[in-house]
Amino acid sequence: MPPSSGLNSVVSKATQTEGDWSEIEVDVNKLVTALQSLVPAVQSLIPPPEPVEIVVSLSLASSQNH
Fold first, then answer.
1. In the chain, which ranges are continuous DSSP H helix?
2. Whole-prediction pTM value?
3. pLDDT tens digits for 13-50?
4. Which of 10, 42, 44, 40 is nearest to 26 (CA)?
5. What is the rounded radius of gyration, in angstroms, for the C-alpha atoms of the chain?
6. Are 7 and 31 in contact (CB under 8 A)?
């Protein structure tokens, strides 16, 4: 089942529920699970960062310290 089909039913049910917080909590948990299932798909679309070379140069200027 595609995650998007489950999202619509979760949202519509949560908006129709007025006083049953335990039902809302279950709906929110389902929504969070559906969103978390999208993470691997989104991460595969993001290219890995290119390596960065950091060069540190230290110079001791003894004439400036005296």
1. 3-16, 21-36, 39-45, 62-65
2. 0.39
3. 555 656 688 888 999 999 999 998 888 888 888 888 89
4. 10
5. 26
6. yes
